[in-house]
Amino acid sequence: MSKEDIIRKLTSRKFWTAVCSFVALIVVAFGHSESDATQVTAIIMAGATVLSYIIGEGMIDAARAGDVYEYEEEEEE
Fold it and tell me: Sign of the CA dihedral 71, 72, 73, 77?
């Protein structure tokens, strides 16, 4: 699995929905209430939102930095 594949997975809403569903079912299976499962799911989704935002902004910044670097090289020639 390449770095791009991992990044794509970490920023995928489908991936985080699957993680939340799995964790919620595990929480209920261990005898906790549905309310507890809902709270855990909300925490996971909040963390996933922040993580996706950070990764996405990092990718945008990296792309911009690459564009600036290429532009500066062209000016020097």
Answer: positive
Q: What is the pTM of this model?
A: 0.66
Q: How far apart are CA 77 and CA 72, in angstroms?
A: 9
Alpha-carbon gap, residue 59 to 29, rounded angstroms: 38
Rounded to whole angstroms, the Cα distance separating 9 from 62 reads: 19
Segment 34-63, tens digit of pLDDT: 999 999 999 999 999 898 889 888 888 888
Report residue 18's pLDDT band, with 50, 70 and 90 as the boundaries.
very high
Which long-range contacts link 38-47 to residues 24+ away (Cβ below 8 Å)? 44/16, 44/19, 44/20, 45/16, 45/20
Range of the domain at 9: 3-76
Number of domains in the chain: 1
